[in-house]
Amino acid sequence: MPPPLSLRVAVIGAGAAGLAAARELRREGHVPVVFERAHAVGGTWLYDHDDRHHSSSLYASLRTNLPREVMGFLDFPFAAVPDSADARRFPRHQEVLRYIQAFARRFHLDGLIRLRTEVLAVSKDNDEWSSGGWRVRWRRNAAGDESEQEQEEVFDAVVVCNGHYTEPRTAAADIPGLDAWPPGKQMHSHSYRVPAPFADQVVVIIGASNSGADISREIAGVAREVHMADRSAPTATCHTLPGYRNLWLRSMVERADQDGTTVVFRDGSSVRADVVMHCTGYTYSFPFLPAGDGAVVSVDDNRVHPLYKHVFVPQLAPRLTFVGLPFKVIPFPMFQIQASWVAGALSGRIQLPSEEETMEDVSALYSELETVGWPVSQFEYDEWLAEQCGGGHADRVEEWRKDMFDAAKRKKVQCPETYRDEWDDHHLLERAYQDFNNYSS
């Protein structure tokens, strides 16, 4: 076997995925350089009250919807410690940010990161897809928002870790009439921070998943009426939620009158709304990658194509990769295992299938999605990744973590108002902290 390669690798983003990538790349013997446009590490967990940089989607009161024990990296526990500012099992976003920053300090990653540095473009250094480096054009943004001149560097490989909670996806195009409403009459939850601006208003929330449910309940404390439209609700749905007199669960919005005031639901009922808020998720965005005829990936129906196992571009593997794309998963452990796979593939320690084989796998996945309607479970995926990395214990998601994740999901369905503060998985909590004792703080 030839000696392992040591490559200079550009990592785009210093959130949890980018930090995991930097750590695994360095452990494998590579030289990572992390580009982060914000003033600090943290990615989506870096709260921005004024939404000045349009990168944070956090609202002020946000708490995690997973227990901290589940969320943490595999070998760096997110445990409650005596000096925790928020020791709750479902803490506020500030506690997650502190944890991510502690991860960066613990593994001495700060020296690898260029803060306030925005990647503008990534392109091949030559016309041959199978050889050569990657040209990264970037600009450092000063604290006063005065931008320095653009600069370029060449890297052996690029790992994209820019997250997927910054580019809002709205329902306006799917609801006749709503696209005519002005920005002041509709917004995305990406820009929501506190409930005060909605005092005494009638608010229609489109979407009933995590953010829609939480924001609806919070706004109901100050608004005159809140109507949460759920795409999966039966047409006749129209009732107040338990414990509320002014919060209704409704069927999906059928149309919006172009007068900018009236919203009509599928059951034919209507309300005069002061504002419509889209809690409809986000779309993937890679503005620094080639587009058009020279595009290396495309985003269609919220799917990044073509990617082998959500990570490698078959034509460019392993020199252009993505870490952190799957959603509705336990993110940090998955980031860590994906990053380990990428680092090993770049060094040559891990052999990838041929381009033809990876493209066949991509096609098979899409066929399965069209036929069955869902991909393999996240834990099957994590297990498969761990096998690619060598199958060591350090790369495996523990059984207690899987069970705790499932228990939290069930509790959320049963007790949506109180699941963060009432739980019945003490036996799993005990197993978690037994495992945590194996790692130094």
Write structural notes for this entry.
The chain has 2 domains: about 10-40 and about 110-165 and about 280-395, FAD/NAD(P)-binding domain (3-Layer(bba) Sandwich), CATH 3.50.50.60; about 170-280, FAD/NAD(P)-binding domain (3-Layer(bba) Sandwich). It contains 9 helices and 19 strands. The protein has about 450 residues and is α/β, with parallel strands linked by helices. About 25% of the residues lie in helices and about 20% in strands. A hairpin with a 6-residue loop joins strand 11 and strand 12 (about 245-250). The strands form 5 sheets. Strands 8-16-9-10-12-11 form a 6-stranded mixed β-sheet, with helices on one face. Strands 3-2-1-7-19 form a 5-stranded parallel β-sheet, covered by helices on one side.
Q: What's a quick, concise take on this entry?
A:
By secondary structure, this protein is of the alpha/beta class.
Note the main attributes of this structure.
FAD/NAD(P)-binding domain, 9 helices, 6-stranded mixed beta sheet, 5-stranded parallel beta sheet, alpha/beta, 441 residues, 2 domains, 19% strand
| Tally of discrete structural domains | 2
The shape, in one word, is globular
CATH superfamily of the largest domain: FAD/NAD(P)-binding domain
- Helix percentage: 25-40%
Question: What is the CA-atom radius of gyration, in angstroms?
Answer: 23 Å
Keywords: FAD, Flavoprotein, Monooxygenase, NADP, Oxidoreductase
Organism: Zea mays
InterPro entries: FAD/NAD-bd_sf (IPR036188), Flavin_mOase (IPR000960), Flavin_mOase-like (IPR020946), FMO-like (IPR050346)
Protein name: Flavin-containing monooxygenase
